[in-house]
Amino acid sequence: MLKKIVIASGKGGTGKTTVATNLARVAPDPVCYVDCDVEEPNGHLFLNPEIAKRIPISVKVPRVDYDLCTFCGKCAEACRYNAIAVLPKSVMVFEELCHSCGGCVLACPESAIREESREIGAVEVGNSAPIGFLREG
Ligand code: SF4
Ligand code: SF4
What is the per-residue DSSP string for 67-121? Predict the structure, then answer.
């Protein structure tokens, strides 16, 4: 039966990685170590995995077609994250603020916004035999 063990703490420096990697090493059953630490995914330093593939992760961000845009401001009104600002002759998209909700695309009366992929990272997949390994790369 598949078992999932989660090692978590809100505070850094408490030994999560040490405990998790050692548990992975001594587990009697086949293990897949998944490093979900968004700030310091350091399990690889202990397990020294061979990375077999890197899967890029992307999100959609809006791109404005200036041939269609009338600078009406409806996209900026619709955006709850203040990720679009409409100026008299340009539309600024703040990609770091964008939540990829697609609201601006729906709100645009001119169909002047299309979505484009923006790579934000990757998942690395490999192994430190016999341990399977995944982490944000
Ligand atoms: S809603 Fe569409 S037409 Fe209006 S400013 Fe935004 S992109 Fe341009
Ligand atoms: S996709 Fe959503 S969050 Fe991003 S700019 Fe458009 S409305 Fe704002």
Answer: TT-----HHHHH-TT--EEE-SS-EEE-TTT-----HHHHH-TT--EEEEEEEEE
Expressed in angstroms and rounded, the spacing between residue 67 Cα and the centre of ligand 2 is 20
Q: What is the pLDDT of residues 41-58, one digit of tens each?
A: 999 999 999 999 999 999
The model's pTM is: 0.75
- In the DSSP assignment, the letter for residue 43 is H
**How many angstroms separate the alpha carbon of residue 60 from the centre of ligand 2?**
9
Q: Residue whose CA is closest, atom 8 of ligand 1?
A: 69
DSSP H helices in 6-86: 16-26, 43-47, 74-78
Cβ < 6 Å from ligand 1: which residues? 64, 69-75, 86, 91, 107-108, 110, 112-113
